[in-house]
Design brief:
Layout lengths: L1 H19 L2 E7 L11 E4 L8 E6 L8 E6 L2 E6 L4 E7 L10 E6 L2 E6 L2 E7 L7 H11 L5 H14 L6 H8 L5 H8 L10 E8 L9 E7 L3 E5 L6 E6 L4 E9 L3 E8 L3 E6 L7 E4 L4 E7 L2 E6 L3 E5 L5 E6 L4 E9 L4 E8 L3 E6 L2 E7 L4 E9 L2 E9 L4 E6 L14 H4 L11 H12 L1 H29 L12 E8 L4 E10 L9 E6 L5 E2 L4 E4 L7 E10 L8 E8 L7 E6 L4 H5 L1
Helix pairs in contact: 2-3
Protein name: BBSome complex member BBS1 isoform X3
Pfam families: BBS1, GAE_BBS1
InterPro entries: BBS1, BBS1_N, GAE_BBS1, Quinoprotein_ADH-like_sf
Length: 592
């Protein structure tokens, strides 16, 4: 009786926890034998029948039996792959009906295309240039001018000093035993030397439209530190970009023919940002640890690091937030719920948890029987919000998000204010509000024209005031960032001779300024100066330099005027700085 009561209590507890969960358990099969990572998982309607299927680039249990696996419902189909997959994506190659997406598997130096799950096309990366010294050494070996031991010594010297890496053939030769060298040389000396790079990551980029059913280009990251954009029809290289390191994760947004942004997380622990017209990175994010995942959530780049943390960055590299994880991050991917406009990042942890974050707010925690190594979220079958996970032991877990589920901060609990149907106290519409609304409907065009006319008038007045300020140069501070200067003038004396002192200061922090002149513009009928211009000495940053001269008033009627001071660079006519000095009236002449 006690055992029966305990089992019944455990069952009731499991039912209550499942009822309070936001997820429905669909599939939990530990014997599916799927070994992959997030970059090799994709969801697509491969046959155009509305049934979305799971495409997996499987590594095999020991990494020696790579296969392409497609799961439709409960039916799993397999086909062998020639090498271990690096990424798997689905994309539309053509815009005409019927639109059926193709499957692209990046493996080694090639991309294998499948349409209707049948081989369609194979794209190979272009070969890299061979080291001419290496080519010459192998030519000598081909003509039996050097023995295998000399060949090995020469190749080792080339590997240590040359900038161009050795080919795979030479690297294999350097690894063979002494007794096998001669046989290796005889077997390979007649073959041509080739340097071939491999694909490290792959994603898709819309070509000219942002629609979900628009044609997409393939974006490849290679071991030779390059990014390639492929045409979806001819499979030619549309664009090539260089990176300082080997890319391992890619995220793109935009359209290739309009404007796009590309983020690449590389092996040197940095994330580089590129745009459409840039052949090299424009911004760089230097991480304190190696990246283990990269997800674009709205306009925020979420980077997972091997220091068990998530970081949020803008496209210009500004750090927004950091969240510490309780365990190591094994997998990351995007959760996008179209019905509610929600985008969040999913992180599979080594402590058998899957955590869902929106920015740095924790939305939900999913506990799994094993650690999750790959996950993806999207439509599977006819269910829109399906979470698919694979575990370290090769198991498959599927969960369906409930249609009534609402994510909120703090473990997924909804906000009490949002969950309660509280009626807002909306004030009644007054007569003035109704009359104003009717007037805006009837005279909307005239009101808009009046607003535009006033706006243009405001802009015109602002422009005129700005031009007047530039022409009169009322500001004694330089507005150019190249020459940061500050000018202050002091007039001393009762007349008819005045002492004019100019205090010139270099406001930069570290850069001295040389090659400046001071020029005076004045009415020669009223004033006389010993020199109309003179050179300025070297201006050390932060110091105040007094420049003195004398001004003699020539008018016997007590008339005063302004003297304009210009600071210019030698050989140029555009002033860097100017000021107006209001000269006082001569006391001696006024008394006379």
């Amino acid at each position: 009786m006690a055992a029966t009561s305990s089992l019944q209590a455990d069952g009731d507890k499991g039912k209550s926890s499942e009822a309070s969960s936001k997820w429905l358990n669909a599939v939990s099969d530990p014997m599916t034998n799927i070994h992959t990572f997030p970059a090799c998982m994709a969801l697509a309607d491969l046959h155009g029948d509305g049934e979305y299927e799971l495409v997996v680039g499987d590594l095999g249990p020991d990494g020696r039996q790579p296969r392409l696996k497609v799961l439709k419902g409960t039916v799993l189909r397999e086909s062998p792959l020639p090498a271990l997959p690096a990424a798997a994506v689905t994309f539309l190659m053509e815009s005409h009906e019927p639109q059926t997406p193709a499957v692209a598997i990046a493996s080694g130096p090639c991309v294998y295309m499948y349409k209707n799950l049948k081989p369609y096309f194979k794209f190979s990366l272009p070969p890299l240039p061979v080291n001419p010294l290496e080519q010459d050494v192998w030519n000598q070996a081909k003509e039996d001018q050097i023995d295998p031991l000399t060949l090995k010594e020469m190749l080792e010297g080339i590997r240590e000093k040359a900038e161009v890496p050795l080919s795979v053939q030479s690297l294999r030769f350097l690894q063979v035993e002494l007794s096998e060298m001669e046989a290796f040389v005889n077997q390979h000396k007649s073959k041509s030397i080739r340097r071939q790079t491999v694909i490290t990551t792959m994603t898709t980029l819309k070509k000219n439209l942002a629609d979900e059913d628009a044609v997409s280009c393939l974006v490849l990251g290679t071991e030779s530190k390059e990014l390639l954009v492929l045409d979806p029809k001819a499979f030619t290289i549309l664009a090539k970009m260089s990176l300082p390191s080997v890319p391992v994760f890619l995220e793109v947004s935009g359209q290739f023919e309009v404007e796009f942004r590309l983020a690449a997380a590389c092996r040197n622990g940095s994330v580089y940002m590129l745009r459409r017209d840039s052949k090299r990175p424009k911004y760089c994010i230097e991480l304190s640890a190696q990246p283990v995942g990269l997800v674009l959530v709205h306009k925020v780049l979420v980077v997972g690091s091997n220091q068990d943390s998530l970081h949020g960055f803008t496209h210009k590299g500004k750090k927004l937030w950091t969240v510490q994880m309780p365990a190591a991050i094994l997998a990351m991917n995007l959760l996008e719920q179209h019905s509610r406009g929600l985008q969040a990042v999913m992180a599979g942890l080594a402590n058998r948890e899957v955590r869902i974050y929106q920015d740095k707010a924790l939305l939900n925690i999913i506990h799994t029987p094993e650690a999750v190594t790959s996950l993806c979220f999207g439509r599977f079958g006819r269910e829109d919000n399906t979470l698919i996970m694979t575990t370290q032991g090769g198991g498959l877990i599927m969960k369906i998000l409930k249609r009534t589920a609402v994510f909120g901060e703090g473990g997924g609990e909804a906000d009490p204010l949002l969950s309660q149907p509280v009626k807002l106290n909306v004030p009644r519409k007054t007569r003035i509000y109704v009359d104003q609304t009717l007037r805006e409907r009837e005279a909307g065009t005239a009101m808009h024209r009046t607003f535009q006319a006033d706006l243009y008038l405001l802009r015109l007045r602002a422009a005129r005031a700005y031009v007047q300020a530039l022409e009169s140069s009322l500001s004694p501070v330089s507005v150019t960032a190249q020459e940061p200067l500050k000018l202050h003038a002091v007039v001393q004396g009762l007349g008819p001779t005045f002492k004019l002192t100019l205090h010139l200061q270099n406001t930069s922090t570290a850069r001295p300024i040389l090659g400046l002149v001071v020029c005076f513009l004045y009415n020669e009928v009223l004033y006389a100066l010993p020199r109309a211009f003179f050179k300025v000495p070297l201006l050390v940053p932060g110091l105040n330099y007094p420049l003195e001269t004398f001004v003699k008033s020539l008018s016997d009627k007590g008339i005063s005027d302004i003297i304009k001071v210009l600071v210019l660079r030698e050989g140029q006519s555009t002033p860097l700085l100017s000021a107006h000095i209001n000269m006082p009236m001569s006391e001696g002449l006024a008394a006379a």
